[in-house]
Write a structure and sequence with these properties.
With 613 residues, this protein is α/β, with parallel strands linked by helices. The protein has two domains: 36-212 and 220-278, P-loop containing nucleotide triphosphate hydrolases (Rossmann fold); 328-499 and 513-581, Up-down Bundle (Four Helix Bundle (Hemerythrin (Met), subunit A)). The chain has helices at residues 4-20, 31-34, 48-56, 100-115, 158-170, 191-199, 223-226, 245-249, 254-267, 280-320, 328-351, 358-373, 377-380, 383-394, 404-416, 419-443, 451-485, 489-493, 519-559, 562-568, 573-579, 584-611; strands at 37-42, 73-79, 86-89, 92-97, 126-132, 138-142, 175-182, 206-211, 238-239. The chain has a nine-stranded mixed β-sheet, with helices on both faces. A hairpin with a 2-residue loop joins strand 3 (86-89) and strand 4. Helix 16 runs parallel beside helix 19. Forms homodimer and may homooligomerize and heterooligomerize to form the phragmoplastin complex. Binds to PHIP1. InterPro entries: Dynamin (IPR022812), Dynamin_GTPase (IPR001401), Dynamin_GTPase_CS (IPR019762), Dynamin_N (IPR045063), Dynamin_stalk (IPR000375), G_DYNAMIN_dom (IPR030381), GED (IPR003130), GED_dom (IPR020850). Residues 32-300 form the Dynamin-type G domain. One of its GO terms (cellular component) is phragmoplast.
């Protein structure tokens, strides 16, 4: 089995790493919260700070009246084999403190940095590590002292604010509660015991500490408390004799104070039989042993949490994208993979896997027919215009049998109107395809990390769509022009046009006067042209969508990024790197995830290697 020092030391190491990465909160239980630690709880002036200093063996905590501890102090003790003692703060990782008076000043300065020189409190913890041959491996959290009234300079809510902060730590089922109570006060009124009882009613997580035993009234003692009769806990009570104010003023060495404390218990007629289970040194060993036991019990759940978090972090890395290689080949491969991912999404929009492609059919089924219906053919083929066109087409020589030139002019003029709807269909589909490109880029998860590549792909895709639109416009205009260039002769052969004659004898057909024809004659010409134009309209209603789909939609599916592929293949490594220039916030997020992933994997491996030796 692992030694106590190695297992607790490992937990301390993991907790420091978690804290450095900010992994001590959020949704669910973090690894920091899953690792057991000891929270020191007590009322103001209960001797809480003195207990901590006795456990550490150093005088390092700020002192004063009122609330001195105004931020949680996460104190990690690391036993070293030898050498000089020193301390390190997480907020100043490169600075080593060997003078513990400087440690006290740094705690006070760091507290003021957040709270100001007021009596306000903050739940932002200070993280301090102490390395010494005179300590046991242990994590202690010194919390602000519980109080019953607000003093001048504090908000009215300070009493509840402190209690809420303390609760936020001790409600964690992995937290061991060190409840500090002055022995010269009634244990029933102890703030620490009262709060511990609420969050740990069975007492399995609570250790009781009775302080100030040497300050009790003459003729009284705390045996009922220390022997568990006044208030029973599952763990034994420990008595502590803190340094006196005179000792503090004289800067009595903490190691000497420990010896003095032990002498007090050994020579005491009331506590002599408990001397071997009293004092700060015994308390530290007791807590360390229990902490090691709790850690070992929690190992399966800790490993389960680590594995779950590793899976979540890997999934998140897959979602935002893993780091890419630095060589040109890896960069080119990444760019091509991003393009293929975009292309898949774009095709899904066109083929119906995602919304958007149906809007193209809407252009053909609704917009194009509606535009045809709005063409001014009635005005162009009105009786007056038919007369005018026929007359102008004949010139000085009236037609002999049928006004063929007039027919051609009327049909050419009518079919010219179809160019507008044809081009509008091309533009409408072009707009839809551009919109689908934009949506596809935003929906391609792999591309989100590369804003520059997004812009490059969008520009390349839109350039291709412009070319496809130009070709499509030429094609649909050719379709209209082809209908004007060669008329369907069979349609007119079936008409058997015969001019209606007036009741008067017909004039000479070679005569120059067109008034010999009745209005019915021109009306019939207009009707014939309308019928032909309608036939062409039905044809174009079918052929224009085919041309648009072939020239724009099909080409977009087949060759949207072909020119981009050819262009990017000729780029140098530096240019490829610029295309893969990521969003700085995403890079920072990936770096943090990668660090957390490395932390959790290392923690799992180290716990596995240490716990079961």
């Amino acid at each position: 089995m692992a030694t106590m020092e190695s297992l607790i030391g490992l937990v301390n190491k993991i907790q420091r790493a978690c804290t450095a990465l900010g992994d001590h909160g959020g949704e669910g239980m973090s690894l920091w919260e899953a690792l057991p630690s000891v929270a020191v709880v007590g009322g103001q002036s209960s001797g809480k700070s003195s207990v901590l200093e006795s456990v550490v063996g150093r005088d390092f905590l700020p002192r004063g009246s009122g609330i001195v501890t105004r931020r949680p102090l996460v104190l990690q003790l690391h036993k070293i084999a030898g050498g000089a003692e020193y301390a390190e703060f997480l907020h100043a990782p490169k600075k080593r403190f060997s003078d513990f008076a400087s440690v006290r000043k740094e705690i006070a300065d760091e507290t003021d940095r957040i709270t100001g020189k007021t009596k306000q409190i903050s739940n932002v913890p200070i993280h301090l590590s102490i390395y010494s041959p005179n300590v046991v491996n242990l994590t202690l959290i010194d919390l602000p002292g519980l109080t019953k009234v607000a003093v001048e300079g504090q908000p009215d809510s300070i009493v509840q604010d402190i209690e809420n902060m303390v609760r936020s730590y001790i409600e964690n089922p992995n937290c061991i509660i060190l409840a500090i109570s002055p022995a010269n006060q009634d244990i029933a009124t102890s703030d620490a015991i009262k709060l511990a009882r609420e969050v740990d009613p069975t007492g399995e997580r609570t250790f009781g500490v009775a302080t100030k035993l040497d300050l009790m009234d003459k003729g009284t003692n705390a045996l009922d408390v220390l022997e568990g009769r006044a208030y029973r806990l599952q763990h034994p009570w420990v008595g502590i004799v803190n340094r006196s104010q005179a000792d503090i003023n004289k800067n009595v060495d903490m190691i000497a104070a420990r010896r003095k404390e032990q002498e007090y218990f050994e020579s005491s007629p009331e506590y002599g039989h408990l001397a071997h289970k009293m004092g700060a040194e015994y308390l530290a060993k007791l807590l360390s042993k229990h902490l090691e036991s709790v850690i070992r019990q929690r190992i399966p759940s800790i490993i389960a949490l680590i594995n779950k978090t590793i899976d979540e972090l890997n999934a998140e890395l897959d979602r935002i994208g893993r780091p890419i290689g630095v060589d040109g080949g890896a960069q080119l491969y990444t760019i091509l993979e991003m393009c293929r991912a975009f292309d898949r999404v774009f095709k899904e929009h066109l083929d119906g896997g995602r919304p958007g492609g149906d809007r193209i059919y809407g252009v053909f089924d609704n917009q194009l027919p509606a535009a045809f219906k709005k063409l001014p053919l009635d005005r162009h083929l009105s009786l007056n215009n038919v007369k005018k066109v026929i007359s102008e087409a004949d010139g000085y020589q009236p037609h002999l049998i049928a006004p063929e030139q007039g027919y051609r002019r009327l049909i050419d003029g009518s079919l010219g109107y179809f160019k507008g709807p044809a081009e509008a269909s091309v533009d409408a589909v072009h707009f839809i395809l551009k919109e689908l490109v934009r949506k596809s880029i935003s929906e391609t998860q792999e591309l989100k990390r590369f804003p520059s590549l997004q812009s490059d792909i969008a520009a390349a895709a839109n350039d291709s769509l412009e070319r496809f639109r130009d070709e499509s416009r030429k094609t649909v205009l050719r379709l209209v022009e082809m209908e004007s260039t060669y008329l369907t002769v069979e349609f007119f052969r079936k008409l058997h046009l015969e001019p209606e004659k007036n009741s008067n004898p017909p004039p000479n057909p070679s005569g120059p006067n067109l008034d010999r024809y009745t209005e019915n004659y021109f009306r019939r010409i207009g009707s014939n042209v309308t019928a032909y134009v309608n036939m062409v309209c039905d044809t174009l209603r079918i052929s224009i969508p085919k041309a648009v789909v072939f020239c724009q939609v099909l080409q977009a599916k087949r060759a949207l990024l072909n020119q981009f592929y050819a262009h990017v293949g000729r780029r140098e490594k530096e240019q490829l790197g610029k295309m893969l220039d990521e969003d700085p916030s995403l890079m920072e997020k990936r770096e943090q995830i990668a660090k957390r992933l490395a932390l959790y994997k290392s923690a799992r491996d180290e716990i596995d290697s240490v716990a079961w030796k």
